[in-house]
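Sync notes, pocket subgroup
Present: LS, DG
LS reminded everyone that the earlier model was apo-only. Rerun requested with 5'-O-[(L-methionyl)-sulphamoyl]adenosine included. Inputs:
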Amino acid sequence: MGEKVYYITTPIYYVNDVPHIGNAYTTIVSDALARHQRQRGRGVLFATGTDEHAIKVAEAAQEAGLTPKEFVDKLAPAFMDVWKSLHIKYDDFVRTTEPRHIAVVQKAFEILRDKGDIYKGVYEGWYCVPDETFFRESELIDGKCPNPECRRSVQWVQEENYYFKLSAYQDKLLDYIEANPDFLQPEFRKNEVVSFIKQGLQDVSVTRANRGWGIPVPGEPEKVIYVWFDALLNYITVAGWNSDERKFNEIWPADIQLMGKDIFVRFHSTLWPAMLMGLGIEPPKALFGHGFWSIEGEKISKSKGNAISPAALAADLAAQSGAKLDVAVDAIRYFVMREAPFGVDADFSIAALKGRFNSDLANDLGNLLNRTLSMMARYLDQIVPEPAAVASELKELVESTHREVEDAFDRFQFNRALEAIWQLVGAGNRYLEDQAPWRLHKEGKSGELATVLYSTLEVARIVTVMIAPFMPEAAKEMWRQLGITEPLEKQTWAGAGAWGKLAPGTKVEAAEPIFPRIEEKARKEDPAPVEKEHITYDEFKKLELRIAEVIEAERVPKADKLLKLTVSLGDEQRTIVAGVAQWYEPDVLIGKKIVLLANLEPATIRGVQSQGMLLAADIEGRAVILTPDSDVPAGSKIR
Ligand code: MSP
């Protein structure tokens, strides 16, 4: 038998509508996890799919004027397209209408019926169609569905049906949960499950009258199998149960099954392991119930019109920033995994998305690569140098980050993994500031310059491999600019922890910003400033004057008066355009401290975004740049 395959599952989605950001979340996270585990050299099976036999799917089909089968055949590919557009690389996509799955469901039903775990009775009770769930009278809240995410009307159902003896598994489930501390995660949801089970489990009706949609009960085609009994079994269909024993032994039990909190307690943590126990199959190793997303503080719902598709969000972000669409998609993937710990509820807001785009991606990550590549072009003809020494503080940080990220993935703490990687990005940026390669170059310290630029490139290489599972396409673009010929997909996780793998002699590409900053346009309703001879102190206070250090300087092509300067404000960098090229050579400005009007409305001058204005004295038309008369840290405020 080969090595156990790392098996990851998402829930399979109801095909009544295309996914919104909330249900895309589970799939995005699963994809990042799958990609990371592939880097670790594991054989991975990452499966997702569609849940097609729900009553609400049949209802949606009717509304669309199609038969249920026509409807699902149209929507299932739409799901695949959405996943593709979100850079989801699954290994299997299961549809519950496929013959391989129907065979599994009927077989499982027969086994449980034969052993008496499924028995016939009359079902009388309430049914919630949106949730496809049976409820006891006592469970209803104000006569409505008790699920806090639903609260819709329920229907009275009275049918002869088959029941699954869930009550018989109450103690077995509790024992299993206790003996396997990692089975239900996060911990606080485990407690919810335990108290749900302890309240007493009722047997579950697992068939419905056949109204033309569903998997028929073997030998009794007037009945169909309950959609949850059907859907949960998809996880073993994919693993090859009942068709390929060898495959099944390599894949099952699933290593991690991810889902939202709404389907965690009742279905995945209770019914599902009980069904498996009944079938004599081991439960999955871990189940994780994540939190819910709201949008701008509101519950996501079709009727509110806020069930935004992730693709539309990405298109918007691309338009506003000027980033490529693939990069914008990755920024959304990044955002949802970074913004909140996996497990708790979170809010998706456009302001928060833009904030993270500008600060984490444009400023931190983008700058690290851009600045390094620009200096590589300026000082080293784009050829990776042989370092004169090992930057041991960075090397050590890489090693500890590597351990931390690995551990975070093993505990499904995706935001912690990203935080750790961003510590490393920050350290890379600070190292550049501290080492000031522009000064080393000016002073002719070529050995030190080689060490500094090699080391920042090495941080960029390592960070690129580490973020590839989260942002696969943006990472590919970073990798291209780093000029490393071995493909990114071939990079191993071990390689991401090994300092010094970047080969001297590699030719890097020219810097091209991958995450262009989103600039807020000035508000139209701003009143025109009133001209006055004097200004008040409050008006003066509106000027944000700061000391900035020039890090890079170059001429703006085809503009003999303009220089493009990259300046540091300590914790932030800006690009500005200054009309001083007639009097200053670019190189002499590098390392100089200048006075910057930092809150001037950004403007594009000769195709370059200028984010502030340098102050200079005007001596009969000649500009003399103002500088502080003793050394002042970059970023200092001027009052
Ligand atoms: N078909 C069932 C699952 C069967 S699995 C054997 C189902 N489908 S669903 O399409 O309604 O939901 C799929 C996933 O999306 C679930 O994990 C659910 O928790 C998640 N989410 C739906 N809305 C969500 C948010 N607003 N936020 C986060 N996740 C959300 O349930």
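DG: DSSP finds 20 helices and 26 strands in the chain.
LS: The chain has a mean pLDDT of 93.
Action: DG to write up.
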